[in-house]
Amino acid sequence: MTTRSDCEFRDQADPLAPLRDQFALPEATIYLDGNSLGARPKATSERLQHLLEQEWGHDLIQSWNTAGWIHLPHRIGNKIARLVGARDNDLVVADSTSVNLYKVLTAAARIQRARSPQRRVIVSERSNFPTDLYIAEGLCEELGWTLRLLEAEEIEANLGPEVAVLMLTQVNYRTGRMFDMAAMTATAHGAGVLTVWDLAHSAGAVPVDLTGSDADFAIGCGYKYLNGGPGAPAFVWVHPRHAGEFSQPLSGWMGHIAPFEFSPHYRPAEGVARYLCGTPPILAMAALECGVDTVLAAEPYGGMAALRAKSIELTELFAQLVEQRCAGHGLAVVSPGDASQRGSQVCLTRTEGGYAIVQALIARGVIGDFRAGDERTPDILRFGFTPLYTRYVDVWDAVEHLREVMVSDEWQRPEFNRRRAVT
């Protein structure tokens, strides 16, 4: 059986261990919620301070040129492209995940409406992240289309001639289950269906190959495994074959072919640049670039392949320790046991007290989060593992705290059962 000393030894031998020094992590805290909000890079404070004092404070509006503010969407986009298997200038940073999803879903719908007007259905996983479903639902109301929700195992058999778009999140936010992007995309294309992938729980956590998988569209957020800060800008990718075939619905001035021409009529920029809309948020962009750089810092150590290998070890260790040390307390691991089907998180269920258990852990300095279930799905205790800064000994200590919370019934205390606005 694994001991704490075993975990300490693994940390000492971990070639990725130096990457933890990039982050400002509070002492006595085990942070297992990077799948919701990444930890703050140390470089972010200095970068933002320089931007505030020098670029904005002293150089003022000149910094659009002298500091390259105008190029940030593309510069950071090309950095993220290295993490998700995209080519230079096929991915840009812009807006939020929800806004970008509306753009690409609309573009995909317009393409299919021109090619195959009988296709009027968007298919997605029933347990997809709610904002994705809400955006798709709203677009379907606009178009007079149908949003069809299926269980993951039902999708491949239900891509009929009426389906226009398959919209999936590669790693499910509730369970950590991961789709095989290449295989699912090939199946969709074989049925004449375009694919839209949400990489919110993938980018910076698992190897992604958008180009190799032949996906059509992808979006993702910057504040989880990319460590860009709360509400960081999102990104959008379009396969080059669609670059000149669509017009996205939010035709803002930054997506114009010549924004400073100030023409009264819109002419879309070439390629993915037309997916830009309004003026980019420079402070947030600068913070995001610092976060992306922390992931790129892993390249000399083996890059995403090395991060993925450690992620698998961390998640498997956590699942094994929970099953060994917390047996008899009603906790069950619901994330896939097969690493090829699991992202960088492990999710637990319990018929009672899930929210309170997470709150009791947080009070002990073990930060995870809780996602409520419904009539179809159970409550979820979520734990995310960011190999840039999560240690093996953190996993051991987190499970020990969980065991103590369960053995002592600490979670039943009233203060842990009072719901907060954010869970």
Automatic annotation (TrEMBL):
It catalyses: L-kynurenine + H2O = anthranilate + L-alanine + H(+); 3-hydroxy-L-kynurenine + H2O = 3-hydroxyanthranilate + L-alanine + H(+). Keywords: Hydrolase, Pyridine nucleotide biosynthesis, Pyridoxal phosphate. Pyridoxal 5'-phosphate binds at residues 97-98, 129-132, 169, 198, 201, 223, 253, 279. Its cofactor is pyridoxal 5'-phosphate. The keyword Heme does not apply. Pathway: Amino-acid degradation; L-kynurenine degradation; L-alanine and anthranilate from L-kynurenine: step 1/1; Cofactor biosynthesis; NAD(+) biosynthesis; quinolinate from L-kynurenine: step 2/3. It comes from the Bacteria. It holds the Pfam family KYNU_C. One of its GO terms (molecular function) is kynureninase activity. Gene3D superfamilies: Aspartate Aminotransferase, domain 1, Type I PLP-dependent aspartate aminotransferase-like (Major domain). Catalyzes the cleavage of L-kynurenine (L-Kyn) and L-3-hydroxykynurenine (L-3OHKyn) into anthranilic acid (AA) and 3-hydroxyanthranilic acid (3-OHAA), respectively. PANTHER family: KYNURENINASE (PTHR14084). Belongs to the kynureninase family. This is Kynureninase. It comes from Caldimonas mangrovi. The lineage of its organism: Bacteria, Pseudomonadati, Pseudomonadota, Betaproteobacteria, Burkholderiales. The gene is kynU.
